[in-house]
């Protein structure tokens, strides 16, 4: 097991790439957005993102971040996941990640290192998934709709408006979206807006500003939606992170 530690500045980007080893992507401070062809994740210090060997992915750091990542040799751990996923990071898993990145690597010939790796992988395997991911649709019209949202289509633009722009009926667009992503278009948009809010909050944007950009008419409505998804108010969430 190898590791890497760095402190990228706010806004730093690592373009699409792949590794021959599995990677556990983690920031112990700050926030990171990770994307693949299958989906995207925003991970604060309470989450990590798993990128299997050979899967292309890119990253962008939101705010000044403490990047701590681990690499697992596939032929030594053949039973690890073969798809990208986000996982929750327990206090124990966090401590183990920081321990390994502080010493650069684990050597299987060293008994203590083997014990650390065993406990870490056991803790990783039992980690729960975070509240949601942001799966990407596969067909051209649904990808076009997602691109319109990403390019800044405001929450006031309805599903009907998106459907008209991409050349589909609204019911067809909504049906295809569920079939391709497993979630409704409305739910996907709300989740994306809250992920974006998480990034804005991480760099210190005021609640009122963040709430408006996420499509909420009041700060209290935004805080309620945030708590419903993330399990805590924004202030409490970042205190826990």
Provide keyphrases for this structure:
globular; 2 domains; 23% strand; 241 residues; Jelly Rolls; alpha+beta
Can you describe this structure?
By secondary structure, the chain is α+β, with helices and mostly antiparallel strands. The protein has 2 domains: 2-125, Sandwich (Jelly Rolls); 134-240, Orthogonal Bundle (Arc Repressor Mutant, subunit A), CATH 1.10.10.60. It has 9 helices and 9 strands. It has helices at residues 91-103, 111-125, 140-150, 159-166, 170-181, 185-202, 207-213, 219-230, 234-240; strands at residues 2-6, 13-17, 22-25, 27-35, 39-43, 47-51, 57-72, 85-88, 134-135. Strands 1, 2, 3, 4, 5, 6, 7, 8 and 9 form a 9-stranded antiparallel β-sheet that branches. The mean pLDDT is 89.
What share of the residues does DSSP label as strand, in percent? 15-25%
Please bin the fraction of helical residues: 40-55%
User: How many helices in DSSP terms?
Assistant: 9
Average residue-wise pLDDT:
89
- As a whole number of angstroms, the C-alpha radius of gyration is 19 Å
User: What's the CATH class label of the largest domain?
Assistant: Mainly Beta
Category from helices, strands and their pairing: alpha+beta
Distance between the termini: 26 Å
H-E order: EEEEEEEEHHEHHHHHHH
User: What summary fits the major beta sheet?
Assistant: 9 strands, antiparallel
Quickly give the CATH architecture of the largest domain: Sandwich
- Tally of distinct domains: 2
Judging from the principal axes of the Cα atoms, what is the shape?
Answer: globular
Annotated CATH topology of the largest domain: Jelly Rolls
By DSSP, the count of extended strands is 9
Low-confidence stretches: none
């Amino acid at each position: 097991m190898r590791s890497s530690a760095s402190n990228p500045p706010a806004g730093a980007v690592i373009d699409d790439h792949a590794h021959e080893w599995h990677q556990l992507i983690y920031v112990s401070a700050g926030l990171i957005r990770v994307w693949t062809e299958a989906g995207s994740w925003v991970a604060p210090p309470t989450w990590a993102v798993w990128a299997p060997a050979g899967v292309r992915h890119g990253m962008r750091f939101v705010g000044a971040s403490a990047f701590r990542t681990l690499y697992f040799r596939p032929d030594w751990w053949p039973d690890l996941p073969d798809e990208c996923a986000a996982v929750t990071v327990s206090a124990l898993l966090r401590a183990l990640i920081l321990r390994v990145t502080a010493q650069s690597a684990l050597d299987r010939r060293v008994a203590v290192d083997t014990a650390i790796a065993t406990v870490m992988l056991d803790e990783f395997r039992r980690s729960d998934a975070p509240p949601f991911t942001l799966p990407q649709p596969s067909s051209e019209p649904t990808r076009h709709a997602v691109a319109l949202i990403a390019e800044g289509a405001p929450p006031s633009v309805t599903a009907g408006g998106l459907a008209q722009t991409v050349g589909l009926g609204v019911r067809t667009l909504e049906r295809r979206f569920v079939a391709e992503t497993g979630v409704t278009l409305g739910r996907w948009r709300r989740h994306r807006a809250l992920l974006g809010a998480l990034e804005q909050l991480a760099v210190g944007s005021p609640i009122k500003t963040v709430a408006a950009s996420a499509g909420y008419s009041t700060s209290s409505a935004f805080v309620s939606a945030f708590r419903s998804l993330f399990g805590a108010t924004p202030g409490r969430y970042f205190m826990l992170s």
